[in-house]
């Protein structure tokens, strides 16, 4: 017996948190067909939310990510300060500050109003779901749903099952993620940082170590990574890449190189200096680089443009591209 296909238009969704990522998650859900309720503690601080989401939907239409009318989609968005308005939701996604107690307080308010079978998802980027499930009335329906910004464009999504998550809920989120235009990864065990953050932060630590050690400048590290890892990573993950290049070579390099890599558990001095001097990055024009307000806006626009372009490129070379080509040749008798 075939399972019934999920229909987003019959699955109202909620989003808690109307920050940058909350806006792009809402846009993604609206484009998929959901009716969405966005929750904030203070809507006065988010008066531009509807306009911003509408602009994102217009971009998606212009870039071919949706054929739906943005004006019609935005009509399915309700904004509220009242958690009771989440009552009809089949799935609620929390995207607020990375603080366990603040998140749990939000979950208690959600559980007060939604059905016992409604999925509660967290867009945490590092907190183990097993910790966030503690004290929940129905921990089995809690699932980590890790998005990346811009959430309405990227193909990325990690789905994390906590110790008490029932597999059926994780599988339902995976099926929904595909309807949202994602290529989701499902973690088999709950670990802090999940997949990409664990690997990315190891890279960030080594990048800072190279600069702190006087081996290279920030600019040189960025240049090398862009022109090497940045060259192949849209096409292949690390394991496929090592296969393509020859696994034995990496085996030999690892024996000599791994003992030389930083394994410090302390915040790198470079990172500490930037943050403790008030650096926040693009948002205030001070990070590892300095930006005028005009440069900051230009970088943000370029980054969004790049995300649309890289999405088109990645879709030309899906993860199973080589296998699909082989099957196609065999089917033609090649």
What is the mean predicted local confidence, pLDDT? 94
> Helical element count?
14
Sheet-strand content, in percent, reads 5-15%
Helix content: 40-55%
Q: What does the overall shape look like?
A: globular
How can the largest sheet be summarized? 8 strands, mixed
Question: Could you give a quick summary of the protein structure above?
Answer:
The protein is α/β, with parallel strands linked by helices and 334 residues long. The chain is 46% helix and 10% strand.
Written overview of the protein:
- The protein is of the alpha/beta class and 334 residues long.
- The protein has 14 helices and eight strands.
- The protein has helices at 20-32, 49-62, 70-74, 100-111, 129-133, 167-179, 196-212, 218-227, 229-232, 238-245, 247-257, 269-276, 293-316, 321-331, and strands at 13-16, 36-39, 77-80, 91-94, 119-122, 142-146, 158-161, 185-187.
Keywords:
alpha/beta, 10% strand, 2 domains, 14 helices, Rossmann fold, 46% helix, N-(1-d-carboxylethyl)-l-norvaline Dehydrogenase, domain 2
Task: Please render the helix and strand layout as text.
Layout: E1 13-16, H1 20-32, E2 36-39, H2 49-62, H3 70-74, E3 77-80, E4 91-94, H4 100-111, E5 119-122, H5 129-133, E6 142-146, E7 158-161, H6 167-179, E8 185-187, H7 196-212, H8 218-227, H9 229-232, H10 238-245, H11 247-257, H12 269-276, H13 293-316, H14 321-331
Parallel strand pairs: 1-2, 1-4, 2-3, 4-5, 5-6, 7-8
Antiparallel strand pairs: 6-7
